[in-house]
Amino acid sequence: MTDAATTHAETSSRSHWVPDLPLVVWMVVLTLILGLGSGMASADLVAAYNVGFGRALGEFALILLPSFTLAAALSRQNVASEAAGRATAFASPVAGAGMICPDTAYAALSPAAGRYKLELAFGAYAGFKLLYPAGPLIVAAGLGAAVTEAVPPITLLLAGVMLTVPVWMAGVIWARFAYKPAESGFVAATEQKKAGLFLTFAPFSVMAALLLVGGVVGQTGNGIIDFLLMPKGALLCAAILALLQTPVTARRECLDSAVRRTGSLLLVIGAASAFGGVLTMLVPLDRLVPNGSGLVTLLALFALTVIFKLAQGSSMATFAAVAPVAAPIVVASGAEPVAAVFAICLGSFIAILPNDSYYWLVRRDALEHETSEARAIRILTGGAVLQACVGLALLLAVVALWA
Q1: Which helix (H) or strand (E) is 329 found in, with range?
Q2: CB-based contacts of 258: which residues, under 8 Å, 6+ apart?
Q3: What distance in Å separates the CA atoms of residue 62 and residue 140, rounded to the nearest whole number?
Q4: Secondary structure (H, E, C), 246-298
Q5: CA-to-CA distance for 138 and 236, rounded, in angstroms?
Q6: Any stretches that span the bilayer, and where are they (predicted)?
Q7: How much is the CA Rg of the chain, to the nearest whole Å?
Q8: Angle at alpha carbon of residue 258, lines to 327 and 308, rounded to 5°
Q9: Alpha-carbon gap, residue 366 to 113, rounded angstroms
Q10: Cα separation of 388 and 403, whole Å?
């Protein structure tokens, strides 16, 4: 109670100095202040805002709408089974990436996770951040054509897998030592539901197969086939399959949920893109970042993302907001595109705090027996920071050796 009261008092105190506004409002206000404060004509500012706002919305709509449809459909499946405790922890990175949301992946699989819930939480978090088609695809799309055209999807997929394994294991090790769950937290499952987990991950298997075939075959010249073998087409196929597994009466609800989530996020993405566009016009970023600065640029991108994540809390909104701002830095510095994408992804690990919905989801489930709010914060934030540091060290080492 003391922690909660203190937090409330601190929040109330801060609110006297800083208005409590949604991220999208902050982005719009800052863009207008930046443009008008620099002396831009109002017509030029509005024109720049229009161009920036719509720059990547179509790209994101094709990614987010099927992604959230997939998430909504899978969240309605019961995957409890005798062997699901360890299986969910093992499959959690794939679930986090496939559902394009660690919250949804955790909520869908936690009923079957038992005493492995914390391992599931860090696994879903790592998969969402580092595995294609989640974090890497979203960040690459936000960085723009200069990155997406230079980086084949199979490269992002393989690089993400290589980074995910050690980062995921760091989270698992932290979970084992940082918190001992109560034995009563393990929920036994029924025998007749063993197939549920395999059916749940069938859309992921289809998506992975299509992406692998696309990476091997390349362009076929047939528009329909080429679309199905590209990330957006494979994601759409996975969403359709998950929707077909959902009861007919719940399908419209899944689609409505996907539309609501996509619409609100597209607004954030548009505002962030407009801010990045106006910022690029006014600030000579090519002079601030030395050409070919390599490791320095990667560290700068990591730090920039950390700032956005600590301020915003939401991982998805962080990706949406930071990518347009980081895009001119990546282009001006000449940084390796794949490394730049994953530097941003790794920066978004820091941290799982109370301003993140994922914190409360895991806190009230995996850590429900933990009475100290401060210790709960240390457990979740400590694991996320460890994962970020392990991933960043590995990324910088590979870039340094490759160079």
Answers
A1: helix 315-333
A2: 65, 66, 67, 68, 69, 71, 72
A3: 14
A4: CCHHHHHHHHHHHHHHHHHHHHHHHHHHHHHHHHHHHCCHHHHCCCCCCHHHH
A5: 15
A6: 23-49, 56-75, 130-148, 154-175, 196-218, 224-244, 265-285, 291-310, 317-335, 341-362, 383-402
A7: 21
A8: 30
A9: 10
A10: 22
Where are the extended beta strands (E) located within 86-129? none
Spatial distance between the Cα atoms of 139 and 338, rounded to a whole number of angstroms: 10
Contacts of 275 (CB under 8 A, 6+ apart): 27, 30, 31, 34, 52, 321, 324, 325
- The per-residue pLDDT string of the chain (403 residues; one tens digit each, 9 = 90 and over) reads 344 444 444 444 444 555 677 767 877 888 888 888 888 888 888 888 887 787 667 777 887 788 778 777 877 765 545 455 677 788 889 888 877 778 777 876 776 677 888 999 999 999 999 998 788 988 888 887 556 666 777 888 889 999 999 999 999 999 988 887 765 444 444 443 444 556 766 887 787 788 778 877 878 888 888 888 877 788 789 889 989 988 898 899 989 988 988 887 788 777 777 776 777 677 665 455 555 557 888 898 898 888 888 876 778 778 877 887 788 888 777 778 889 999 999 999 998 888 777 888 788 788 888 888 889 999 999 999 999 999 999 999 998 887 6
pTM: 0.66
Locate 194 and state its tokens. Answer: 């063993």
Tell me the DSSP string of 34-65.
HHHHTT--HHHHHHHHHHHHTSSHHHHHHHHH
* 361 CB neighbour count, 10 Å cutoff: 18
Q: Which residue has the tokens 């959902």?
A: 246
Do 336 and 399 touch, CB atoms closer than 8 A?
yes
Give one DSSP letter per residue of 209-221, joined into a string: HHHHHHHHH---S
- Written as six digits, the tokens of 85 are 């405790």
* Distance (Å, whole) CA 384 – CA 403: 28
Q: Report whether 330 contacts 147 (CB < 8 A).
A: yes
Give the separation between CA 99 and CA 239, rounded to whole angstroms.
10
Identify residue 334 by its one-letter amino acid code.
Answer: G
Can you read off the two tokens belonging to residue 317? 């909104």
